[in-house]
Structure formats: C-alpha cells, structure tokens
Design brief:
Main location: membrane
Distance between the termini: 60 Å
Strand content: 15-25%
CATH superfamily of the largest domain: Transferase(Phosphotransferase) domain 1
CATH class of the largest domain: Mainly Alpha
GO cellular component, one term: membrane
Number of domains: 2
Keywords: Leucine-rich repeat, Membrane, Repeat, Signal, Transmembrane, Transmembrane helix
Protein name: Pollen receptor-like kinase 3
InterPro entries: Kinase-like_dom_sf, Leu-rich_rpt, LRR_dom_sf, LRR_N_plant-typ, PRK1-6/SRF4-like, Prot_kinase_dom, Ser-Thr/Tyr_kinase_cat_dom
Number of strands: 27
Helix content: 25-40%
Radius of gyration: 29 Å
Length: 646
C-alpha cells in the first residue's frame, strides 16, 4: 500500500503528460465525430492545422497558434456532444454552439473547468440541470442557456459557485421554483423572462429592470409592483434536485429570532433613555458662531441661489475664460496634489489648451465636455481647468456626489479630477496637467519620422488603456456608460509612455440633449440606430482606439460625418480582414515590426482581432473588458490601483 501511494503521483504526471501531448487537431477531429450534419466543418481535416498560418479551421478562435475558442454557430449541427476530447485543449476558454439543432440533456461541459464563457442558446436542450453542475467552473463569466427547453430548478451553483459571473441568460425555458440569491458584484446582464418561476425576487437582483422577469406570472416583488403574500422561503417546502425537504423547522427559528429581536429593542430603549437623562443633567454649552475648520474641511460649498457666505471669494480667472465669476470656492475631491482654492487659480496665468497647432491640416477630435485651460498655481502644481457648459441641468447635490466618487478612484491609467467649482450656468473641473502630448497628437501630429511610436510602445498603450477601462467598468458598473468619451484626444501619455485616460463617468451630469454631441460613445452603431448606449458602447470606442493605433488613421467616428476627413476604420478594417489583406492597412512601423519578428506578428494579429471584435455591430457579441484583458495577456496587480472610500 505504501508503495502504491509513492508511485501514484508519478502515474498522474504521466497521465497529464500524455493528455497534454495530444495534438489539438486530433482532439478536435475526435470531437467532430460526435456531431452530425458536419458539412460546415469540412475544413477540419487531418492534413491541416487548426490554427494554420494561411488558413485556420472554420469555427475556431485562435491565439498564438492555440485554440482558445470554439464558435460553431448556426450550422444546423446536431448529435450527442462528446466533451471528453475537448479536455485536452489546454487554452480553451470559450465555447459557443448557439442556434444549432442539439437536443437532450445538457452536455458535460462542466468538465472544462477553465471555461470563461459558454453559449448554448437557441438549441433544443431539455431536462433538469443538476444543482451542482457549475460548482467547479469558478472561472465562468458568461452563461447563455436561453431559448432551450430546460426544466426543473435554476441550478443553485450558478448563484453560489461563480464569483466572476457577469452575464446570465435563462430566458425562454421551463425553469420552475424560486430564483436563487445572486450576489455577484460583476453581474450586469441577466434575463429570467418567460419561464415558470415563482416567489419573491431576491434583493440582489432588485437593481435590474422589470422586463428581465416578464413572462413569470407567479413572481412577485417591489420591482414588479406586486406584493408577495408570504415572505420568501418562510415556511414553504424546499425542493432540491427532485428531493423534498420540509421547512417547518424554519418556524421555530423564526420565533426564536423574533424573541431575540424584541430583547435587543428593549435593551436599546433602556440605553437611549439613560443617555437622554444624562444629557438633561448637563449644563447647556454655548456654541461659538465660528467653528474651527481643519485642512480637510476648509472648502466651502455655496448652493446657487442661497445667501453667499462672507468667506466666499469672487473674481475671474486671470487671462482665462472671460466672464467666469466665482460664487463659491473650489471643492477638493482629490488632495494628492495639495489643497488650493479658487483664489490660487485667479492669481495664476492661464492659457488655452487643445489647439493641435497652427497648421489646419491636423485633424481635431470634435466633441468633448468643454474647453480647457492650463494654470500653474503658486505651489508649482500645474493643473488643467476644464470649463463645462453642458451640465447646467444638474443639481449641486448630484454633481457633488458624482464628482466625489470619481475623485476617489486611484489607478495608474486614469486621470482623476482634483477639484470642482459649481455654478448654475457652467462648471469648472480641475485635473492634474500631464505634460506629454495626447495620443491623438502622437499618432496624427506632424512630428517627423523619428517621433513615431514603435510597436512595443503602441502595444503598451493598448494594454494600458484596456487596463484603465476595465478598472472603470468595475468601479463604475452602476453607470450606463462607465467612461462614455474614450478617444485618442482623451488619452495622455505619461513620462514612461504609460497611457492615462481622462474625461470618464460624466454621462449622468451632461444635459440629455447635449450627450450625443459631447460623448463619442453616442457614435456606436446601437446609439446611432436606436439611441441606446451601454458599457458595450465603451468597448466599441476602445476598439476604434485600437484600430487607430494599429493603422495610424484618424477615425471618422470621432467627428460624426467625417468632418475631419477621417476614415471609417471599422468598415475599412472589417472588409480588409474578410479579404485577407489587412496587413497592407497597418501603419508602416507596425508592418515592419511584423516582418522583423514572428512574436510581434502574432501580437499584432491578436490585437487586430480584438479590435475587430470590439467594434462589432451587435453590442451583445462584443467582449467584456475583462475578456479583453485576458486576450491581451495582461496580469493586473492589486498594486496597480486602489479605490479610496469616501
């Protein structure tokens, strides 16, 4: 027995080696055998490579010659799917078999524990899904099971075992019972409509719209404007995977909890009365009309229309925007560069920023939230003061709350605001001044050949922008548009060439009629066609920036109807990729890098593929920024950012 335990790890290692040594082509061909009506997969042949240099197999997504995605959609495929051969694909992260003709119980895709997304929608899968089916798929972020014939309870493991779940589609099935309590913070896209669900909607899902629960007559809750007749799971029998567990014991627990609650209330009442008696015995203390204020409280906010404080300052920015009269001091929301007031800005000389140069041939990115001015205050800190006139419909309370949240964010790839000044007709936003040029000017300015960005620099910028946008999507997930105005003119380059993103999170403050003119996200396909925007509109903007960096071309998406003579990069690149001539469209420095180094060529092809996916017409098919981070092989560290709670 002791010998057996000694050799067992060795046997396991041999098994692992043999599994990993199976060629991807062999595994995929074995998988293909389990399918029927496979004419669409004729390119899958033993004499070719799945991720070949000249042509890859249909339905595969490749990264550095390895299969990371299986995308065999709308091919009328059927059969009894054999998942076993896919377990040897070490880099497989996403599977989509949507809109085919598969039937029967859900295949055992849960054997692929490294999957990040699984799309099974639009088939005829049926039967119950085991409650622990997703238990070991801890990396899963997207699960689309909609438009099938699944029955039974919603698998509990969807709610309890997937900490990174972002998208869940269960609509148009036959699920019964109550909805589990989903508490994942990244969950932003869910749909439970058109099932047979009953009971109260969990509080963790109350932030979503009522439409995602439509078609379930027995559901109740405040979001549906219906009152539940009894508390959720209070005394009803609970069904788990076909077995019944009587919940009568919960009555005793409820009674016990009620008793404890009454005792706590009585104790609090006694303490309150005792404290009140002590206060009465104290002598009244005279309160001074002037209270000492420390450094953290020295900024005063005056609401427009109220009586101006004696300590308020009035004046105009010297050499700055004419007619800006201050009715309140600055409100600091980020004190990393020190504390300063409006008077410090008044004393500083200011000059206009944003002029790309004297030559009119240089393209300018139209739109934006306002004109900008640079000022150097007495302490030596250089700041940018942005004068905003498209936020005159927002109250000071809302403005303060939103800007304070933005000022609490910390990440090396984002430029957080330092302070603001509030007036009814215009606002001032103050940022740290970044001395280097914006990405717009580095890409399109007349700097000469020696000033061109090489491929490593371009890749570093793309990765940094992805990292910063991912952080914003995480921290500002409650916003329809976590950024809203991502374009090359709002990306600055730090001393080491690290990108710094500005002008984010302002959508809710901008007047609705001015949003389409001020925010580039409103030029995404869904915004143009339907007037709708979402976080995926940010992803589209990111994709445009990626294509801009790869090609060196100025995108017409920045100027609406090509007023700056830009190129429709999305259509231009998309057509070229379909025809296989995409390399000819890239910037010469990128082309030269691909010709000189095989690794660079693979990196360029991978980044181009990401840019094309991000600019797809259908926002639902665009990747999430977390997925983009994975595909760019970025290892984000907790040292890169920190959020300061306020």
């Amino acid at each position: 027995m002791a010998v057996a335990w000694l050799i067992w790890p060795f046997v396991l290692s041999l098994t692992a080696l043999s599994t990993n040594s199976i060629p991807e082509s062999e595994s995929l061909l074995e998988f293909k055998k389990s399918l029927t009506n496979t004419k669409s997969l004729d390119s899958w042949t033993p004499d070719s490579e799945p991720c070949g240099e000249t042509q890859k197999w249909v339905g595969l997504l490749c990264n550095k010659k390895s299969v990371f995605g299986l995308q065999i959609e709308q091919m009328n495929l059927s059969g009894n799917i054999d998942v076993a051969p896919l377990t040897s694909l070490r880099f497989l992260r996403t599977i989509s078999i949507m809109n085919n003709s598969f039937t029967g119980e859900i295949p055992d895709f849960n054997r692929l524990t490294a999957l990040k997304s699984i799309y099974l929608s639009g088939n005829r899968f049926s039967g119950k899904i085991p409650f622990d089916y997703f238990q070991n798929m801890v990396s899963l972020k997207k699960a689309w099971l909609s438009n099938n014939e699944f029955s039974g309870l919603i698998p509990l493991s969807l709610a309890t075992s997937l900490p990174n779940l972002m998208e869940l589609h269960l609509e148009n099935n036959q699920f019964i019972g109550t909805i589990p309590s989903f508490t994942q913070r990244f969950l932003t896209d869910v749909d439970f409509s058109n099932n047979q669900l009953t009971g109260e909607i969990p509080s963790g899902l109350s932030r979503f719209e009522a439409r995602i629960f439509a078609g379930n007559p027995e559901l109740c809750g405040a979001i549906l404007a219906t009152t539940c007749t009894q508390p959720r799971n209070s005394s009803a029998s609970i069904t788990i995977d076909g077995t019944m567990k009587n919940a009568d014991k919960s009555k005793y627990y409820l009674a016990f909890a009620t008793l404890i609650g009454l005792l706590i209330v009585i104790l609090i009442s006694l303490l309150f009365r005792k404290k009140k008696t002590k206060r009465r015995r104290k002598k009244p203390r005279r309160i001074s009309e002037q209270t000492t204020i420390d450094d953290d409280q020295q900024i005063q906010v005056t609401v427009e229309g109220s009586r101006t404080s004696k300590n308020s300052r009035s004046g105009e920015l010297s050499n700055g925007p004419s007619g800006v009269t201050a009715t309140a001091d600055l409100v600091m929301v980020n004190k990393e560069k020190g504390v300063f007031g409006l008077s410090d800005l008044m004393k500083a000389a200011a000059h206009v920023l944003g002029n790309p140069g004297s030559g009119s041939s240089r393209p300018r990115s139209s739109g934006g939230v306002g004109s900008a001015y640079k000022a150097v205050i007495a302490s030596g800190v250089a700041v940018v003061v942005k004068r905003v006139t498209v936020m005159n419909e927002v109250s000071i309370d809302v403005f303060h709350k939103e800007i304070t949240k933005l000022g609490s964010l910390r990440h090396r790839n984002i430029l957080t605001p330092l302070a603001y000044h509030f007036r009814g007709d215009e606002k001032l936003l103050v940022f740290e001044f970044v001395p280097n040029l914006s990405l717009l000017h580095r890409l399109h300015g007349d700097h000469g050949e020696g000033f061109q960005l090489d491929w490593p620099s371009r890749l570093k910028i793309i990765q940094g922008v992805a990292r910063g946008l991912w952080f914003l999507h995480r921290e500002l997930e409650f916003l329809d548009l976590p950024h809203g105005n991502l374009k090359s003119s709002n990306i600055f380059l730090g001393e080491e060439g690290e990108p710094i993103i500005s002008e984010f999170g302002l959508q809710r403050l901008i007047n609705p009629e001015a949003q389409s003119q001020s925010l580039v996200a409103y030029r995404s396909p869904e915004a143009i066609r339907y007037g709708t925007v979402s976080a995926k509109s940010d992803v589209f903007s990111f994709g445009v920036v990626v294509l801009e960096i790869l090609t060196g071309k100025f995108p017409s998406q920045y100027a609406g109807l090509s007023r700056a003579g830009g190129t429709d990069l999305v259509e231009w690149i998309g057509s070229a990729v379909e025809q296989g001539g995409w390399m000819d469209l890239l910037h010469p420095t990128v082309v030269n890098a691909a010709a000189d180094d095989k690794t660079s060529e693979e990196e360029i092809e991978n980044v181009l593929r990401i840019g094309v996916r991000c600019t797809g017409d259908d926002p639902d098919r665009r990747p999430h920024m977390t997925e983009v981070m994975d595909e760019l092989t970025i290892e984000d560290s907790s040292e890169d950012f920190i959020t300061i709670e306020t």
